[in-house]
Amino acid sequence: MSVLAVGLSHRSSPVTLLERVALNGKTRTKAVGEMLGSDAVNEVMVVSTCNRTEVYADVSSFHGGVDAITELLSWHSGVPLAELAEHLYVHYEDRAVQHLFSVTCGLDSMVVGEGQILGQVRDALKEGQDGGSVGRVLNDLGQRALRVGKRAHTETHLDHAGSDMVGFGLGQALAHLRPVEPEAPTGAPPATGPARCPVAPAADGAEAARPEPASLAGVRVLVLGAGSMSALAANTVSRQGASSVAVANRTPERAARLAECLTEAYDTVESAAVPFEAAHLALPDADLVISCTGAQDLVLTADTVAEAVRDRRRPLVFLDLALPRDIDPAVRDLPGARLVDIEDLRRAASESETGAGRSGVLTLVRGIVEEEVAEFGALRRVNEVTPTVVALRAQARDVVEAELARLHGRLPDGVDAKSRQEIAYAMRRVADKLLHRPTVRVKELAAEPDGHSYEAALRELFDLEPETGTLAGTAPPRAAQENA
Length: 484
Hints:
Blueprint: E1 3-9, H1 15-21, H2 25-36, E2 41-48, E3 52-59, H3 62-77, H4 81-85, E4 89-92, H5 94-105, H6 116-131, H7 136-155, H8 158-161, H9 165-173, E5 220-224, H10 228-239, E6 244-249, H11 252-265, E7 270-275, E8 288-291, H12 302-309, E9 316-320, E10 337-340, H13 342-351, H14 355-359, H15 361-408, H16 417-446, H17 452-462, H18 478-483
Parallel strand pairs: 5-6, 5-8, 6-7, 8-9, 9-10
Antiparallel strand pairs: 1-3, 1-4, 2-3
Helix pairs in contact: 2-3, 5-7, 5-15, 6-7, 7-15, 15-16, 15-17, 16-17
């Protein structure tokens, strides 16, 4: 088993390139099938979110796997391989395992510590299982990654330390949602500022935190999409007191179901489903539009938005959480609109330090990741030595049976069947006892960081050829590892 990770994320690539490389729907299915068609790739799992596109694979060779995956990413995205290579990262074996564990914990997210990535990795694993691209190797890896993510969130209270993508996005978008102040009567004192929480003094002289809106009371929200991210957004704005939430989705039943759930959960929120093709007609009645549809093309163009925001007293705020983006970036130039998209969120995230980082929670999470990587590596090495141990025992059994056949032909005719059975039993017991301690010990030694050398020595000493082939974790040349 050799695990390879190839991908790009918000840390390595501009958003415009992430949009082009994003693998969604049928494109992802086709790309995965073609990757599996390579001689070097045995299993594939794709994690594709608004922050990243990553391919995890079980490969038979390092260079062959890298070439197959990068060439197909280039082909399906239309991005020249030379341009793509400038932003791709490659991790191999333990480094690939560590990267997936870190990603699943939220350590590599735009909003560090967010929990949505855990569900996204779970979805990627299930998609691979259902599609047949994930076998034993990636299933074991994916299941362990989910375990690590759960540990990080339960044992360190990571959920309470940071934000999530929706919450962080709303924090940025709501800075533009200020109520229109009525004109003060002549001679009256000026109206007070927006209904926002006052900035509390920062402790220990630290810079004061960005003031957050007290609530979404009176805000009318339109949500485009009904997937997990959109559902989280709809629930979040409802919980914060939005007066109404309209949901539009290409599948009307999903939009209706989400609206129904909101009605059941929040008594004070008016919720309804609107036809997706007529969503632009709902723009004039909204104050905030949140979009995350997974569409490959723009959902709202600048011309459509310009028509909707004409003559508005206050800007219509758009929060675009999709990749590729749902809303035309040109919307940010319209006088009656305010747009916050993935590019804005990345910039804001890089400029701010999260509560998780200040609290030291991330240090604890990294410790969990390191512990789990070491344990998973030990289990992998033990599993890899098992076929060799089985081959050794099979070889010993064949030798015993051959010698028994030779012996039975030489025993006197007077030796009865029971005595012959006792002789056979004794010979097999001797072989088992002689092999027991060495095979147990080689498994113990295999769990060590350099344990593969003991398995290799066992194969060499006894001239073994396990049915599963050579050790799956055989490393590439040192130069290739250093460049990985």
